[in-house]
Automatic annotation (TrEMBL):
It is found in: Cell membrane. Residues 8-135, 145-276 form the EamA domain. This is DMT family transporter. It is a multi-pass membrane protein. The chain crosses the membrane at residues 34-52, 64-85, 91-112, 119-136, 148-169, 176-195, 207-225, 262-281. Belongs to the EamA transporter family. It comes from Aedoeadaptatus acetigenes.
Length: 289
């Protein structure tokens, strides 16, 4: 796969996953958090197994281990994302969760015990200012419970990005994507039976939401992201991830009736700047070398 094709695929994957915020909001009107996750990922596992079972064998022990690790961390991402969406607007959750992009270079610097690049520091500062605007309410700046959950999801997602880049370099990326989906199903099912009353969707609206989440957002979005990331640079991947909150915001405003205050608009502009400008700076530096 060429880098251009990988970029197109990655953009499609990110946009597909951005639609999940809209469908999750609708789905949680009738289904509990982990119940919705469990049914969604059960359908996704079933479809992926039926359509691509030949690509799942043989599977190395390394791929099995790495896919399990990714699945556990991604389950944390999804769980906190769903809990955030129960109380916060989808646009806010999407922007807060995607601050993971700027967390990646900071985490890498921490892991390697090196100073982060100036562009990464700039992006982090501008993004933090944006988070402040985004979470501002008249008279005070305070994080709601949903916004805290979204930021925890962001930290976990940053970990997933780093691990995916490392594992996809040596393991089968499609198998890694499938194992992510499988483990999210297993863990969300366990959580459902332990904390909720499990049930199947009961009407066409709930089934439509489940099928859209399973086929478009999970089967396509989750499974093919490692495939796309294997053929493009982390910088380019980070740039495309900025599409997620923008698409989610458009859907939240137009389809869910969410409103954007001037403070939220200022926060969105700061976060988009913090996510994209450092990547553009680093890309320009590489071209000059």
């Amino acid at each position: 796969m060429s880098e251009k094709s990988a970029s197109v695929l990655l953009a499609a994957v990110i946009i597909a996953r951005a639609t999940s915020y809209y469908f999750i909001k609708i789905g949680m009107e009738g289904l509990d958090v982990f119940n919705l996750l469990a049914v969604r990922f059960f359908v996704a596992v079933l479809l992926l197994t039926l359509l691509f079972h030949k690509r799942l064998y043989p599977m190395t022990k390394s791929t099995l281990l790495h896919g399990t690790i990714l699945g556990v961390v991604f389950f944390a991402v999804m769980a906190f994302e769903f809990m955030a969406l129960k109380t916060s607007p989808s646009s806010t959750v999407s922007f807060l969760e995607n601050t993971s992009i700027i967390l990646v270079p900071l985490l890498v610097a921490l892991i390697t015990r090196t100073l982060p690049k100036k562009s990464a520091i700039f992006g982090a500062v501008i993004t933090i200012i944006g988070v402040g605007f985004l979470t501002y309410t008249p008279g005070r700046i305070a994080l709601t419970r949903g916004e805290i959950f979204a930021l925890i999801a962001a930290l976990n997602y940053a970990t997933v990005i780093i691990l995916t880049a490392r594992f996809a370099a040596t393991d089968d990326p499609f198998q890694l994507g499938f194992l992510q989906v499988l483990w999210i199903f297993i863990l969300s099912s366990l959580a459902t039976f332990l904390t909720e009353t499990p049930r199947w969707p009961e009407n066409h609206v709930e089934w439509t939401v489940i099928l859209m989440l399973a086929v478009v957002c999970t089967g396509f979005g989750f499974t093919l992201q490692p495939v796309a990331q294997r053929h493009t640079t982390p910088e380019r991947a980070g740039m495309f991830c900025a599409l997620n909150p923008m698409c989610a915001t458009i859907m939240g405003v137009t389809l869910l009736g969410e409103t954007l205050s001037l403070y939220k608009i200022a926060g969105i502009l700061c976060i988009v700047t913090g996510l994209t400008v450092p990547i553009l700076i680093e890309s320009r530096k590489k071209k000059q070398l």
